[in-house]
Amino acid sequence: MNVNDTEVIFSILEKAGYERTEVLEEADLVMANTCSVRDNAEQRIWGRIEVFNQARKKRPGMAVGIVGCMAERLKDKLLETRKVDLVVGPDAYRSLPRLLEALSPDSPQIDVLLSREETYADITPVRTDKKGISAFISIMRGCNNVCSYCVVPYTRGAERSRDPHSIVREACDVFQKGYKEVTLLGQNVDSYLWKSETETVNFAALLAMVAAVSPDLRVRFATSHPKDISDEVLQTMASTPNICRHIHLPVQSGSTRMLEKMRRKYSREWYLERVAKIRSLMPDCGLTTDVIAGFCSETEEDHRETLSLMEEVGFDWAFMFAYSERPGTLAARNYPDDVPQEVKTRRLNEIIGLQNRKSLERYRAQIGKRLTVLVEGPSKRNPDQLCGRASNNMMCVFPAAGQKAGDYAHILVTDCTSATLIGQGVQ
Ligand code: SAH
Ligand code: SF4
């Protein structure tokens, strides 16, 4: 999400005549695009702000900007630190040229207005991915859910969907430039809905439209919400070979009591039913998730339910977090953050340990299979080998046989680790 926002910002600034540099000492303006989802993400940003502030002291006239979620969350409190000159929220990037015009050491600038309409639909992002194989396309912004632990609805505003024709145009454009994969991005892609007087396009229809750009263009998407992922979406995936067989389906907890308290609006049983449906339609579908350990009032029994759900589903991979209270959220206002830090850490470690074992099982189950891999380039560890992802999103490494980045290679999986498949080229 943030990579895509950065690309939108580059595009707006390039149009206004600004040039990009990756050398801090050369920059007249340095901006940090920020995330507020967990406290440690914000702590890292504070570290960066300090580094930028030191650079600013050595180079008078240089400005420091904070954009994105942390700008939205902390607003003018950031200016009060005097370490920051410019604060711009996620819906205000179009104001950047105007704000930069007005910016001076005595006149810091801020725009953190959220919008009900802004989708940056007409802005062609300046791609920052150097490989030129895989592009992110934002299909919607904001979120209308109120998961009680989550700060996103407050920092990124209400949900709005982008005009599907501008999305298809962007996919065509990157495909013509040589990209072979697009990932459609939104906080809850399944609730994508665009209506005009003559047309209604839901997420399943959008997926089909983007997949029709070319059978050689792979389509991925994230993030799916268990309460909203529909049979129609699953059927569209199952019947369209270039929509990748991978779903990121954050479960957060295996305990229905916790899920209710998190306001996720599904139960353990509902989640397991969705997984069963996915697997019945697409037995080869990759499945990954997000899990939170130690949410307010979580008991050992709740925690064991998370472990047992993970055992039962067998995710390929997971992002796993200890609960981090975010100011202003429903949970922060209503529930004490009462699971001691050492208990959170122990539970998180148990979750990670289980997932590592499951990942290895899931990767091992691929041995003997033939997969089609989109080549990303030489493997980092061994430049004689190539790497790339299979449709199910698993990273594969195999000996180069004349293919280059952007080609599709066919491999037979012969070995694996818990995060990589190792293969041999086949015809
Ligand atoms: N929209 C997506 C993900 C948004 S944030 C969804 O609904 O799943 C990405 C992940 O960060 C979440 O899935 C959740 O696991 C984690 N997360 C969000 N808020 C958190 C918090 N306060 N503490 C710990 N993890 C959190
Ligand atoms: Fe946050 Fe829930 Fe929205 Fe995801 S769906 S961004 S977790 S409020």
SSE topology:
Blueprint: H1 2-15, E1 29-34, H2 39-58, E2 63-68, H3 69-74, H4 76-80, E3 86-88, H5 96-102, E4 109-111, E5 134-138, E6 140-141, H6 152-156, E7 160-161, H7 164-176, E8 181-185, E9 193-195, E10 200-202, H8 203-211, E11 218-222, H9 231-238, E12 246-248, H10 256-261, H11 268-281, E13 286-293, H12 300-313, E14 317-322, H13 330-334, H14 341-364, E15 370-378, E16 385-390, E17 395-399, E18 408-416, E19 420-425
Parallel strand pairs: 1-2, 2-3, 3-4, 5-8, 8-11, 12-13, 13-14, 17-19
Antiparallel strand pairs: 6-7, 9-10, 15-16, 15-18, 16-17, 18-19
Search tags:
single chain; 427 residues; alpha/beta; 4-stranded parallel β-sheet; 19 strands; binds iron/sulfur cluster
Task: Summarize it.
This protein has 427 residues and is an alpha/beta fold. The chain has helices at 2-15, 39-58, 69-74, 76-80, 96-102, 152-156, 164-176, 203-211, 231-238, 256-261, 268-281, 300-313, 330-334, 341-364; strands at residues 29-34, 63-68, 86-88, 109-111, 134-138, 140-141, 160-161, 181-185, 193-195, 200-202, 218-222, 246-248, 286-293, 317-322, 370-378, 385-390, 395-399, 408-416, 420-425. The strands form six sheets. It has a five-stranded mixed barrel with strand order 15-16-17-19-18. A four-stranded parallel beta sheet has the order 1-2-3-4, sandwiched between helices.
Give the % helix. Answer: 25-40%
Query: Which ligands does the model contain, each kind named once?
Result: S-adenosyl-L-homocysteine, iron/sulfur cluster
Sum up the overall morphology in one term. Answer: globular
Rg over CA atoms, rounded to whole Å, is 22 Å
Q: Tell me, what is the CATH class of the domain at 2-111?
A: Alpha Beta
Strands in their spatial order, largest beta sheet: 15-16-17-19-18
Main sheet? 5 strands, mixed, barrel
